[in-house]
């Protein structure tokens, strides 16, 4: 996943508030996937149960990354900044960036119809408003928050598609993107194997209104 940074000055201001005195190179985008790195990107290597993005720092460097945030010291000529957790740092960075976007956010979730509902709502709103929205399948615990870096600062409203494959994921996303309004399309059996019951699906989706 990768996004272009729409407002580079705001991004720089947020970074400097989080890291006073940091000397930033030119930043064009943010990516968590070394295969998607473009010139001037910040690379954020995430860790999971079966993967560690830190193994691909050299690939990100060769692709033109200008900086990387890492959890452990890495031997590289790429500018790096060490943080305790790259995922936690990413959420903190996006949350701070979100606090500078003054327009309201509408969160949309549900077992089916999220993308269609988002697209229809954006189409209607765009007749009179400057609307920001998540693109494509950027509705995960990483993709939905990451989308905010591509949002304009002078928009009127944003529509965020929010997905969940297991319990608790809606809450994680909402804690970062902080929607002001919400819409649940329906409660169905999608990903039922990961939730166990429709009641648990409903409980996860209801975090949109917490």
TrEMBL record:
Mur ligase central domain mapped to chain residues: 108-209
GO molecular function per UniProt: acid-amino acid ligase activity; ATP binding
Lineage, opening ranks: unclassified sequences, metagenomes, ecological metagenomes
One Pfam family from the record: Mur_ligase
SUPFAM superfamilies: MurD-like peptide ligases, catalytic domain (SSF53623), MurE/MurF N-terminal domain (SSF63418)
Ranges for domain Mur ligase N-terminal catalytic: 26-77
Keyword terms, alphabetized: ATP-binding, Ligase, Nucleotide-binding
Keyword Secreted: no
Protein name per Swiss-Prot or TrEMBL: Mur ligase central domain-containing protein
InterPro entries xref list: Mur-like_cat_sf, Mur_ligase_cen, Mur_ligase_N, MurCDEF_CellWall_CoF430Synth, MurE/MurF_N
């Amino acid at each position: 996943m990768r996004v272009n940074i729409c407002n580079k000055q705001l991004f720089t201001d947020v970074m400097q508030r989080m890291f006073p005195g940091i000397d930033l190179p030119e930043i064009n985008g943010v990516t968590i996937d070394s295969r998607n790195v473009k010139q001037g990107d910040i690379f954020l290597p995430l860790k999971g149960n079966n993967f560690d993005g830190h193994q691909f720092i050299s690939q990100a460097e060769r692709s033109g990354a200008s900086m990387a945030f890492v959890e452990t010291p890495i031997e590289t000529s790429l500018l790096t900044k060490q943080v305790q957790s790259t995922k936690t740092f990413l959420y903190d960075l996006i949350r701070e960036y979100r606090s500078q976007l003054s327009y309201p956010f509408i969160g949309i979730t549900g077992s089916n119809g999220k993308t269609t509902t988002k697209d229809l709502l954006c189409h209607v709103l765009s007749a009179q408003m400057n609307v920001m929205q998540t693109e494509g399948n950027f509705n995960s615990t990483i993709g939905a928050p990451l989308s905010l870096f591509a949002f304009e600062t002078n928009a009127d409203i944003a529509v965020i598609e929010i997905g969940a494959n297991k319990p608790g994921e809606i809450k994680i996303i909402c804690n970062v993107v902080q929607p002001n309004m919400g819409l649940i399309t329906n409660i169905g059996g999608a990903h039922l194997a990961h939730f166990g019951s429709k009641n648990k699906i409903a409980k996860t989706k209801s975090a949109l209104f917490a």
